[in-house]
Design a protein that fits this description.
Order of helices and strands of chain A: HHHHHHHHHHHHHHH
Number of domains of chain A: 1
Largest sheet of chain A: none
Helix content of chain A: 55-70%
CATH architecture of the largest domain in chain B: 2-Layer Sandwich
Strand order of the largest sheet of chain B: 2-3-1-4
CATH topology of the largest domain in chain B: Alpha-Beta Plaits
Number of strands of chain B: 4
CATH class of the largest domain in chain B: Alpha Beta
CATH topology of chain A: Formate dehydrogenase/DMSO reductase fold
Oligomer: heterodimer
Radius of gyration of chain B: 25 Å
Structural class of chain A: mainly alpha
CATH superfamily of chain A: Formate dehydrogenase/DMSO reductase domain
Number of helices of chain A: 15
Helix content of chain B: 40-55%
CATH class of chain A: Mainly Alpha
Number of domains of chain B: 2
Strand content of chain A: under 5%
Distance between the termini of chain B: 12 Å
Radius of gyration of chain A: 26 Å
Chain lengths: 486, 179
């Protein structure tokens, strides 16, 4: 034992290391009570319709008319009124379809994946994010349905016996997409509805108490006789967990299959194995952009700062940053593989994307999707709500351009230069796409007016007073105390 | 059950989740079986305090999932590999590989329906009437209060003793529920 005696009496190794107690950020600020939460959320539904709501609703309806006009014209005259010309036979409708379906994915991520990961901050934003998912799927669904050309035959996509005695062709990823998107829409609606049942029961009882019988009946019908029973909660929570468990592989599979529409083809720029993860990351990125775009104004208008706290905004910004960086990595990796594959067509496609006739779109995409989210590294940016909102608009814009770049630049340059072309949208294309923002807004405005905007029961469950093992006034944490409840 | 003038049960109110939690432990230990708690939000650990067993919803979900997967595979085999063989690009008429994505989606779809249907069935939902809902103050149970309901059909139910138990464990506003 050649060690020298310690010069001082302090031991070199502590006998015991106590873990530091890190304060957890409060999910509901100002220690609000259950009754306050109920009053706040139900008050939005029960109060008088605000004037701004009517204005927004009128504008949204007006914008939605553009989609109606665009589609009516396309159905009456034929899809030739769109900008598709050989070689670009997949134009804006598919761009818009992928754009909207991608936006939906953040809602499922928040409600399902964050539920499985026990991220409790999801509770105050999941309801409206799921609503966003459903309305985005509605907008997305418009495009492929009308893109089939003769829309009255769209039901041929489903395995329904018809007079031609032929069945859908299940070897095509486009047919997989039919099943993926319709399953996604259905499960999203079910998940959203099941999550809402306890809150609808709250509204039913509140309307009954003030004598509004008609509304009590309507909410009561959809509440299905929910009575807050603990035996019921036990089955309910298990069902909710399973739905979260199946919605997670579902959301990943939906955008994977959407990417198969491209990846399974033989077009340079589409035929790559990186597409499924790259599309999923992009979808979540764009979806969080849209969640921020929607939630920040709602938070300001309805004074929801105690429920959507700075911590929530920080979390959303950080996920946007993470997925935006993944998307940036995918852009770089696509270029690398184009070179590494030594395939001249693949290499040409990517050089052409960045420096060819669509370079403007490519660089809009890069600056919005790769550079914009990097600002979220800074706390000062995340704390500036207005700036976050503006940046979220850039994310939405960039993700639309991503789909445009992938679809159009890959098609404009066919294998033979005699088949080269340039895609230009027509007025009908622009009307139809512009109007979908109106369709989305109309649905979202109806949602915030008539349905509980936040999952009250879930928010209550994550407040400190819902824990039966805490006292109303928690004592300072004493690390020596017996952790077992007495 | 024959028609009777017997009330449905006794209901008692509690102020906080902690009060309810301890009261539920007492009711469980007193040996009651047909009783329930009413809470505005799921309370962590209340299942154990009530002595509930694990929910059987997952088994129903599993049945739904298996049905969905088999439906997908057999539907595609029937349509593309048996009933009307369509030659496309020299690909096989049937292969589980190309049938997988659609079967996978149907697995999820059927699981979702089975889970929700199972939960509705187990919770007696879609039944819009329930004696508990007739109780005037029950709306506080969807808001910020907590209740325990002990049914008269419980073998241990006794109008006097059960009321005394609810009083002892801190229940307030004890009332009878009409059937």
């Amino acid at each position: 034992m050649a060690h020298a005696e310690p010069a001082v009496s302090a031991p070199a190794i502590l006998a015991e290391v106590k873990p530091a107690v890190l304060p957890r950020p409060a999910l509901v600020e100002n220690n609000r009570s259950f009754a306050w939460i109920t009053e706040k959320i139900c008050g939005i539904v029960e109060g008088k319709t605000p004037v701004w709501w009517w204005w927004c609703f009128a504008v949204a309806c007006f914008i939605a008319c553009f989609t109606v006009a665009g589609i009516s014209y396309a159905v009456a005259v034929g899809v030739g009124v769109w900008g598709h010309r050989t070689p670009v036979n997949w134009g804006w409708p598919i761009v818009n379809f992928v754009f909207w379906i991608g936006i939906g994915h953040a809602g499922t991520l928040i409600s399902a994946i964050l539920c499985l990961l026990r991220q409790k901050w999801r509770t105050s934003i999941n309801r409206s994010a799921e609503a966003m998912t459903i309305f985005a799927v509605v907008c997305a669904g418009i495009f492929p349905v009308f893109h089939v050309g003769r829309v009255w035959y769209a039901w041929f996509l489903f395995p329904i016996p018809n007079s031609n005695y032929i069945w859908p062709q299940f070897r095509s990823p486009l047919e997989w997409d039919v099943f993926a998107v319709s399953t996604y829409g259905t499960v999203s609606v079910l998940f959203w509805y099941v999550g809402m049942i306890p809150d609808l029961a709250t509204l039913r009882d509140r309307f009954a108490a003030v004598g509004k019988k008609f509304r009590a009946r309507v909410y009561g019908f959809f509440a299905m006789g929910w009575r807050g029973s603990a035996r019921g909660w036990s089955n309910y929570e298990m069902a909710y967990l399973i739905l979260a468990g199946i919605a997670t592989p579902l959301v990943l599979s939906v955008h994977t299959i959407v990417s198969f529409d491209f990846a399974v083809s033989l077009i340079p720029g589409w035929h790559t194995t990186i597409f499924p993860p790259y599309f999923v990351a992009g979808a979540i990125f764009s979806g969080f952009g849209m969640v921020l775009t929607l939630m920040l104004p709602l938070r300001a208008v309805y004074k929801l700062e105690d429920l959507i706290t700075q911590y929530h905004i920080d979390c959303m910004c950080k996920i946007t940053l993470a997925t935006g960086t993944m998307v940036g990595y995918a852009y770089a990796m696509e270029f690398f593989i184009a070179w590494y594959s030594a395939n001249p067509y693949e290499g040409f496609t990517f050089i052409n994307r960045a420096f060819g006739p669509y370079a403007w779109a490519y660089w809009i995409m890069i600056s919005c999707n790769v550079i914009t989210p990097q600002l979220f590294w800074f706390k000062s940016v995340r704390r500036n709500t207005t700036l976050v909102w503006v940046l979220s608009l850039f994310v939405n814009l960039g993700m639309w351009f991503e789909r445009f770049v992938i679809i159009c630049t890959s098609l404009t340059r066919d294998f033979l230069p005699s088949s080269w072309g340039y895609f230009t949208p027509t007025v009908v294309d622009i009307f139809t796409f512009f109007g979908t923002f109106g369709v989305f807004s109309v649905l979202f405005l109806l949602f915030i007016r008539f349905l509980p905007l936040m999952a009250m029961a879930e928010i209550k469950a994550v407040t400190p007073q819902a824990d039966p093992h805490t006292h109303p006034h928690p004592a300072p944490i004493d690390p020596d105390a017996d952790p077992v409840h007495t | 059950m024959a028609l009777s003038l017997q009330p449905y049960g006794l209901i008692a109110r509690f102020e906080t989740p902690a009060d309810l939690y301890h009261a539920a432990e007492e009711v469980r230990d007193a040996g009651y079986r047909n009783w329930d708690c009413i809470t505005p939000a799921p309370i962590h650990g209340l299942d154990a305090a009530m002595g509930l067993r694990r929910s059987i919803v997952p088994r129903i979900s599993l049945c739904g999932g298996i049905t969905g997967f088999c439906t997908g595979m057999s539907m595609i085999f029937y349509m593309n590999g048996f009933d009307y063989k369509l030659t496309v690009g020299g690909k096989p008429f049937f292969s589980p590989l190309y049938a997988f994505p659609v079967s996978y989606e149907l697995t999820i779809l059927f699981t979702a329906f089975a889970t929700i249907g199972g939960m509705f069935f187990l919770n007696d939902l879609t039944k819009l009437y329930h004696p508990v809902l007739k109780y005037e103050n029950i709306r506080r149970g969807m808001d910020d209060q907590f209740f325990i309901v002990i049914e008269t059909r419980d073998p241990r139910f006794n109008a006097v003793n059960t009321r005394a138990l609810l009083e002892n464990i801190g229940g307030r506003d004890i009332a009878e529920l009409e059937e």
